[in-house]
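Recap quiz, item 2
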Amino acid sequence: MVDRMPTATAYAAVLRSRVRAQASYPIPFAVDLLAALVVGVLEFAEIWVLFHRAGVLGGLDIRGVLLVFGLAEFAFSIADLVVGHMDRLPDYLRAGTLDMFYLRPQSILAQLMTSEISLKRLSRVLFGGGAIVVALRLNAIHWTTARAGMLALTLVCAPILYGALFVLAAGLQFHLLDGREFTNAFVYGGRYAATQPASVWPTSLVAGFAFLIPVAFTAYLPAMVLLGHPGGGWLPAGLAWALPLATLWSVALAAAGWRNGIRHYQGGGG
Amino acid sequence: MTTPAIETHDLTRSFRIRGRGPLTAVDGLTVSIAPGEAVGYIGANGAGKSTTIKMLCGILVPTSGAVRTVGLDPVAKRRALAARIGVVFGQRTQLWWDLPVGESFGLLAAIHRMPRPAARARIDALVGDLDMEDYLATPVRQLSLGQRMRAEIAAALIHSPDLLILDEPTIGLDVLSKQRLREFLIRERAERGTTLLLTTHDMGDVQRLCDRILLVDHGRLAYDGTLDGLSATVGAGRVLVLDLDAPGPDLVAIPGTRHLASEGGGLRQRLAYDAAHTSLGAVLSAVGEVRGVRDVAVEEPDIEDVVRRVYQRSAAGELGRAADATD
Amino acid sequence: MRANVLDPGAPRGGAVRPYWLLLRAGFRSQAAYPLAAAAGMFTNAVFGVLKATVLTAAAAAAGGSLAGYSGGQLLAYVWVSQAMIGFVAAMGTAEIGERIRTGDVATDFTRPLDVQGAHLAADLGRSFFSVLPRGLPCLAIGALVTGMTLPAAAAPYVLGAVSLLLATVLSFLCRYAVAILGFWLVDTRGLATFYTVLSGFFMGLSLPVSAFPSWLRTIAHATPFPSVMASPVDVLIGRLTGPDAIRAIAVQAAWVVGIGLLGRVLTARGRRTLEVQGG
């Protein structure tokens, strides 16, 4: 606890400076907020066009997929807001920011995570949250304790899971540098996959995005529980309860990737 | 027996460079720096200075050999070490780019978990000594280079470290800023006995601040001793530029000097002299006996020039003896 | 093959040579980062698999075809469009934006070159480089993983090549016209994000523009963006043939001229701004 205090103090200062900087340039900040919102809106528009054509896809109609979309968008945007800057690790290496973190008595990872915050993502967090609220009303959900618990579990675990993906990406980027875009395949690819009705996936995608990078647990599976839908194939609704396990797995993957990356930086990089 | 501030034994670091095989940046470096010493660590670009500093701070793991900084293993004990050293990398900032300078200081004090009153007193003292009152409320990104470097050095000293490592602290600064910074460092060391390790390309830094010089060449220690010893070894004297009242023959017979060049038929002549063996006054009066002097200028020896000459000697195999002789 | 009337003594091609060298320099600048190209290709391919899966499922749900695309054609649309991302720099910006921000643009104006043309040459160089490490492997992965239906005749490929070339020129001209607004705006990065997102959607990066509901299709076709991706893809995969294909190419050419002229006017005005404010 004692050790966390300085990081918290520093983080509070970073937050204050971001708020202040954005308050002194309200128009660019408003443009950024709006641009982030448009990204979210168009991503939903893509899904809407698809369902407009197909009607029902993977057992879901447009109202059902709105819930999947909202859960994924909300969780991903929170992670992006808090630790999204981490997948620009090569920039930090080039600027020497990371070397400076070595000179302070706190963990490197904690310092990097708290060194920046992307407040412009707030609009997407709100958009995702709004989509969840609308979807919950449109779908006339039959609330039970289990379903309320599932929703609460998802709202807590899913952002952590996506945050872990950003950390994993940063850990891999110690090795990749110029090839940093490789990590987009599972960070942004994972976010994209999470909004899809996963029941249409072939085995390879299930292996990739339900088990290795378990994004199916952040939106599709919880939505199946909330909607009282049985799920399908490899992904029955009951599996949703393994979300804490999937989160732990992602965190473990991220920890291993980060530790490995740091070791590479101290040992072979520089 | 006190623990050395820095101790390395056969410290070696190589890098694998794609398509070019391994590069040994630091090669078998063995040095010991006692607490309170002020050491200039010099060498050409790419000689291995930054790599050494990164190993001293725990940023890089040595390929082989041992390193102890203030008695600690830098990689294993990074956090404990961070509390006892202060480091300024010339081109990088440890301050928060868009926070006011004063707030950055407060943050660093909190990060080092200093009690508030002690932090307040230390920051006030540093602000006063480094003359930073006027820009405490200015965001770091708006500072001039000289202002920022003073802030960086204050930032590195807030937690009163035992060892201060400065990497090119005066690069790009004007004469006055350099002067002020050096005076501050001299006072700070006199008061606290802080050990100083300094890399620089500026001979003035070395002359004013350091009692000892470590010179590296291709990762290897090429010289370890005093500046005077180094000057004596390679003849790194000052250069006297004389504007004479009339053209004439080269001044080759002035005691304690070496004629370097003449321009305008001998109207302007350059003589090298070593302050350890003669004085400026003696040289000028010797010149005055044979020629009329209209103007003089003294050029400091160029560190690159000194380094180049040491390298030439080390290539010729004279180095070991020269270094021994000056210890 | 016309002699230079103004200066008959000038060596032929002398005026074109700097642009050719800039194009080669753009090509080489990308060749220095093979890992970046491989990474881009990999990510494009992963998205390709995801899009192919969901579009195939949507076609099946809609009764075997989607907006007139057969299953195989849809797969071809997904893979050709994914393979084109690097070529038309669908996620890219124009270098001149950064040069305006830093003030380096002043040196561009001191050179005896057309600024827009010089930037176009370098950008085309970068695009051509992407074909080998990004475009073709992505297509090959698509063919192996999901397969696709490509036309058997030669005409779609010939027209497709022309259409692709126009697409990459148009993409550059649009990005250039946006970036050059930096002469008048403090910060164009927010605008650039807007541009990337909106253009991506309306060029048909996520879905074929023909699959949009008609009102959305009307909006899309009021912009140059379908000409950057949807049209060349439709020509290449044989959905637009004969007069339809020619018409699509003519529309592309019209946009190239229009947006190109707009960029020239803005460049000239921007140059005047620079002269007035002294850089």
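Chain B has a mean pLDDT of 85.
The first strand of chain B starts at residue 6 and ends at 17.
End of item.
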